[in-house]
Every structure is written in structure tokens, then in C-alpha cells.
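User: D-alanyl-D-alanine carboxypeptidase. Structure?
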Amino acid sequence: MAASLCLNTGRIPVMAAAPDSNGAGNTASTAPADTNNNAKQEQKPEVPESYNWEIQSNKIPGWPEGPKVVAETAILMDVNSGEILYAKGIDEKRAPASTTKIMTAMLALEKVPFETQITFTNEVNNIEPGSTHIGIKPGETLTMKDCAYAILLASANEVSSGVAEYIGGIVPKFVEEMNQRAKDLGCKNTHFVNANGLYSEDHYTTARDLALIAQAAFQSETFREIIKTPYYIVPKTNITNEERWLNNHHKMVLDGSEHYDGCLGGKTGYTEKAGNTLVTYAERNGTTLVCVVLADNVSHYADTRALLDYGFQNFQKLTAENTSLAPAENDDFGAYLKENGLLNTVIDHSSMNIPANAKESLTYKVNLEKNTVNIDYYYGETALGSSVQEASSEILQAADTFHLQERQAQQSAAANPKADSENTASSQSAAKPGKTSSLDGFWGEVLNIFHELPSWKYPALFLLAAAFIFYIVTLIVKIKRSLRRRKRRKIKKPKKGKQQ
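Assistant: Predicted structure:
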């Protein structure tokens, strides 16, 4: 979080930016600088060890090589798809500093209407001396709108804590909600202990987790509007008889040397132990990216610029017209949908990015669950990400047809030997005109019903046939025995002439 004081008791120039952790102060001396000092200043600063740390995304076969950055951990992610384009230590825990306030503001905007009046308590005094604040006093009242701009633009620590207390009753209760939301978003290495980001060993996140939080917050139109605003004026309050001018701390959204075309804002952060942290959103040509750098020194803006340039220059949107895109092996359903032209809209809306000069195969796998189409995309052996969309009526109908054909094919394969003989017999009888029977239709229907029975029909049929044969053999044996007995009786019976 910024180390400067953001309290303004009077009107200040509209575009004036709050001092940054790496900003230079005004010099009072006009004396010529010492020659030796100039020579020292011209020497390039020593490159931090973190500059050469491993970049995970550079190990992906065929992936565009990403730039080295000073930040200890960094990530570049597509806001819409969640696809990760650049990764450096993205699961290593670091202190987030004031980027914590993205979560604080997101929850506050969800729970409290803009026009709500919030009266602050003594909680506003529970911040570190010298940390960023706008001078709110106990008993002072602001609207939720004023608070949101104070949190996201001016990084006001006391406002963050005061809003947390207002929502949760006590700050720790609100922090529990922050941690729960982080888990709900899929964050696995994040734990908050306060709402403003002041340093604590138990207050940490990762580049990946913070990107997920930033992605979720960006879904709010109100959040997007606030973070791109250059400045905001808090009107006079019940205690302070002056306007407060709040300036956006993020330099890439403002005019100046750090301005970045397409920047949509973000959130700065700084503490002595956390270093500089920065979350930045940018959009070009329909692609919206979020960049997170943690544990940076004074290079956080340069690192962010390099990563955003890397993303916009080396990747392009995946479209259905991409001829190299093919269904994954054994994805018969995906192939069926593509053959029938039913995936074009789904793929075009996936927001997936692929290398502009792809060197690996592009494949996808389709899964349909509860009227939802889920497509997993792969670059070679690497999973790029997934897109989830509601299935159209055409896709649902095609799925029914595909599964019906699949069942019929399986049944036909199981009955193949008998079916072949039946087909041969039927073809032979069809070749002999005049030998049709009025029962052909009946027996044909019987055969169709028989083919649709489960596969256990064949063992059952065998048992029935065996039982029938056993019955016939037994019957024949009985008949033969009966005939023998009759024959013996006739032989033993005396003739009438010899009787006395």
C-alpha cells in the first residue's frame, strides 16, 4: 500500500497523483550536483537475484518465451477465460499489502448499497502511524460510495477497517468472510487477518490467488468504474468542513510517463516488508488481461508493462476458423458436433488465447452435463483452460441423436455374428421373388425387439435352448422306454388256444 498520506484539507490540482513508494520528493537545493555523485547515479543499479528466477510458463513446449521481471512472483491471466499466459512463482506465498483491498471492496460493494450512510467508530485509529489514510475521525459519516472510492483510489486504511467493522460487526468477522470468499474462488494459499493489507506474517496470498480474486472483482460494473476513475471528491461531512480530493494511485491509468494504452485501472500496494505489489487490468482488441506482480522493488510498473506487452503481442484469440483445432483423441462427440458446425459459436465465445505462432497441436474435448457445454482446450500436452456455456437446443438435440446412434452401434457390434447370418438370409430371400410371407413384417419386428435387448440375452437364449433340448431328449427317452415295455408285454401274453 502507498506509504504516503492521502489527506487533503483543501482543493488540489485535479490530476495530481498521490506520492508513490518509489516516487522522488521535491528537491529544495538548486546547487550543482557533485560530479562523483552524477557518476554514481549513472551506474545501473544491481540486478536483484529474483530477476533470474525460473519462469514456469517458459517451460511449456512451443510457448512464447516470456520476459524476465524483477518481481519475485508474477502472473498474466485472461480475465474472461482464466487462462494463464505467464507464470513465475505463482503459487509462492507473498504479502499482498494494499491489493488486499480488492477483496475488501468487492465484498463491500456486494453487501452495502451506495447510498448507505456509514458512521465510523474508534476503529479508524487502529492503523499503523504513517500508513495511508484520508483523516476520517470517530463519529464521522460517509456514504458507501465515498468509502468505495476511498478504499480503491486512495487506499485508505482506516476506511477499509471501518467498512469491515460496519459489515461484520467486528473486523475479524468480516475477515472470516474474506477468507471464505477466497476459498470459494479456488484460492488455495491465501489467508487474510485484516481488511486493509497492513503487514502480518499470517496475512498472505499468491500471484495465482490474487489474480482469481481480481478476476472475480472485475465482474462488478461498479468496481470497474471506480478503478479507472482518475480522481474522486468526497463532499463535506458532519465533522469535516472541507472536500477531500482522492487521487487514483495507479499511474498506468493516468496521464504521465507510466501511462499504458488500454489500462483499465487496478490496485497498488506497498509496505516495507511486502515491497511493491501491483494489480493491473488492460484491454486491447477484445482481449482483457490482468497482471499481478508481488514482492517487487521499484520496477513494478516496468514489470507490468513488459508482461502486458508480452500478452498482447504474442497471443491471439482462438476462433472456430482456426483449421489446426481438432477434437482430442477418442472425443467422438466433439468430432460429431464440429462436423455438424455446432461448435463454432461456442469456440468463438470461449475467450481462449493461443500463441500467435503455434508450434504445438491444438485440441479440445467436449463434455455435456446438465444442459451445459464444457470444453477443455489443450496446446500439445498442456491444458490451456476451459470454457463453460449453456448448451443450445441444437446441441442438445444433436447429443440425443449422437447417443442414440452410439447405442445402436454398440448393440449391432454385440450382435454382429448373428446379425450377419440374418442379413445374409434376408438378402437371399429377397433375391427370390414370389416367396414373401405375410408374417415377414411380424418376424422382422420380433428381430428388432430382440436386437434391442441387453447383451445378456445371448446367455439366456443359450440356457433356454439347452433346456429345450434336454426336454426333447428326455421325452424321446421316455417314449422309447414306453415302446419297449409294450413290446415285452406282448411277448409274455399267452395265446388263447393254449389256455386251460
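Residues 1-41, 427-439 have pLDDT under 50 and may be disordered. The chain has 14 helices and 15 strands.
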